Amino acid sequence: MRAVEAAFRKGGLMPPDEVETVGRDIRRQQALKYLLASGALIRAVDRVQKRSILFHRDAIAEGKSRLAKRFAHDAQGFLAKEAGAELGISRKFSIPLLEHLDRRVLEPRVGHPHL
Q: In which region does residue 41 sit, left (phi positive, over 0), alpha (psi from -120 to 50) or beta (all else)?
């Protein structure tokens, strides 16, 4: 279990691929399930691309903190590409991260009262 968690922790905001990390190893699959259930790993979904990325909770906290510091005084908000540039990550990682933060952490966006 420690090896699986360590791989995602080390990956930070650019975590490793879930399938490549766990593969068909039953013990790694069980560890992954435990880490997801415990909240150590968080599945963030890109609904448009229909894929998910597993982030370690520390990486999500880091991303949230960095974005809050950078865009705290920007009343207009920010674009996904600006967030990705700030975090140094590609769209593959920034979109699921932002969707997760949008649903779980951040205030509803202007013009999106249903969020």
A: beta
CB 88 within 8 A of CB 40: no
Lowest mean pLDDT among 19-23, 55-59, 97-101, 106-110: 106-110
Is residue 106 within 8 Å of 99, Cβ to Cβ?
no
Which range is most confident: 33-42, 68-77, 96-105?
A: 33-42
Predicted TM-score (pTM) of the model is 0.85
Please name the residue that has the structure tokens 């952490």.
105
CA distance 19 to 35: 15
The CA radius of gyration of the chain, in Å to the nearest whole number, is: 15
d(CA 55, CA 37): 13
